[in-house]
Amino acid sequence: MKKILCIIATPKKEEESYGRQMTHHFIKEYLKLNINDKIDILNLYDKEISFLDCENIIDCSKSQGKMYEYANKFKLYDKYIIYAPMWNLSIPGILKAYLDLVIANKITFKYNSFGIPKGLLTNKKAFYIGTRGGAYPFPISFLTYDLKYIKCIFKFIGIKDFKNFILENIDKKPENTKTNFPKTLLKISDFAKKF
Ligand SMILES: Cc1cc2nc3c(=O)[nH]c(=O)nc-3n(C[C@H](O)[C@H](O)[C@H](O)COP(=O)(O)O)c2cc1C
Questions:
Q1: Which UniProt keyword terms apply here (predicted)?
Q2: 119 is in an annotated binding site
C-alpha cells in the first residue's frame, strides 16, 4: 500500500475551480487502478499554516516544534499530488509557507561534507497540477515561476520523478476552457494511470 499526500493550495471551492476538479478527477482515476493506496487530502486553507518564525527554526534544530513535526509527517508519503493556481507569476503564498515548514535540514534534505545539499526523499514521485488565467508561450515562457519553483524544490528534496499538467487561459478564454474541459479530463486520466 502506497501513501499519497494531495496538497491543495487554493481558497476556492471545488465547484468554482477547474484546478480542484482536475485534482479530484486525478485522484478518482488513480484509485481505480490502485485500490489499496491511501490518499490524504491536505487543503492548506483549512489548516493553520503560519510563516516560519525564529522559534520554529531553533526548535527544529532541537528536534521539536512545528517545522520538525510538519517535515517528518511530509516525508512519510510515497507520492505527492499538488494543485496550485498561478498567482502573480508564481505559487500562492500559503503553499510557499507550507513548503518552508517541510523543507528542513536533516529531515527532507541535508548538506554533505562539501556543503552541497542532497535531497533525502528518494524513490518518491510527484505530480503537479497547475492552472493559469493567461498563457505563457515563448518568448514569455520564462515567466512561469510557478512550475519552475515547484519542480526545482521537489528535486532539491530528492524527488526527481516529477510530472505536471498545466491548464492555461482559464480567465482569458473561459468559453474554450469550458468546452474543452471533458478533453482536459481525459488527459488527466492518462496521467493518473501512469502515476
Ligand atoms: C491573486 C491572483 C493572482 C493571479 N496572477 C496570475 C498571473 O500572474 N498569471 C496568470 O496567468 N493568472 C493569474 N491569476 C489567475 C489565476 O491563475 C486563475 O484564475 C486560476 O489559475 C484559476 O484557477 P481555478 O481553476 O482554481 O479557478 C491570478 C489570480 C489571482 C486571484
A1: Flavoprotein, FMN, NAD, Oxidoreductase
A2: no
